[in-house]
Amino acid sequence: MRDVPLYRLAHSRSGDKGDISNLSLIAWDEECYAVIEAYVTAERVREWFAYRKPDAVTRYVLPRLQAMNFVLDGVLDGGVNDALNLDAHGKSLSFWLLDLPVPVPAALAARLPDVDGDIPPWG
After folding, report:
1. Phi and psi of 73, rounded to 5°?
2. How many CA atoms within 13 Å lie on the side-chain side of 49?
3. Measured between alpha carbons, how far is 121 from 123 in angstroms, rounded to an integer?
4. What b/e string do you get for 14-38 counting C-beta neighbours within 10 Å, with b at 16 or more?
5. Per-residue model confidence as pLDDT tens digits over 35-60
6. Where's the AtuA-like ferredoxin-fold domain (predicted)?
7. In 5-41, where does DSSP find H-type helix?
8. What is the tens place of the pLDDT at every residue in 64-101?
């Protein structure tokens, strides 16, 4: 097994409503989704975002889409109208999620794209 950042297995988008951040996580393929489903749990995401002190983290799995959705309550400093931080919408939170280290088999890690310009095997 080898740890790789989550961005090598999936992509993500973020949204917000009030003090709640909504992070989608979409796997590149079925094998990547199996790893994500096993290792990217609500508890692990809560620990990864501990610096934001979430009130709760809920994970919704969407296996037919090879995706999942995380709802993080209380992570936006009160929301857009109340927060004084530079990212009141929490748009950068999806990038932080994608930095989460995930253990993958070495064979899978070898075929995953990286930021050095590799072309993914599906595109």
Report:
1. -85, 140
2. 31
3. 6
4. bbbeebbbbbbbbbbbebbbebbee
5. 999 999 999 999 999 999 999 999 99
6. 4-102
7. 30-39
8. 999 999 999 988 865 555 554 545 455 678 999 999 99
Domain ranges in the chain?
2-76+89-111
Residue type, 36: I
Helix (H, G, I), strand (E, B) or coil at 27: strand
Residues 6+ apart with CB under 8 A from 60: 68, 69, 70, 71
- SS3 state at 69: strand
Fill in the amino acid letter for 112: L
What is the CATH code for 2-76+89-111?
Answer: 3.30.70
50, HSE (Cβ side, Cα atoms, 13 Å): 5
- Edge to edge, what strands does the sheet with 20-27 contain? 10-17, 20-27, 67-73, 56-62
| Tally of helices (H runs) and strands (E runs) in the chain | 4, 6
H/E run at residue 106: helix 106-111
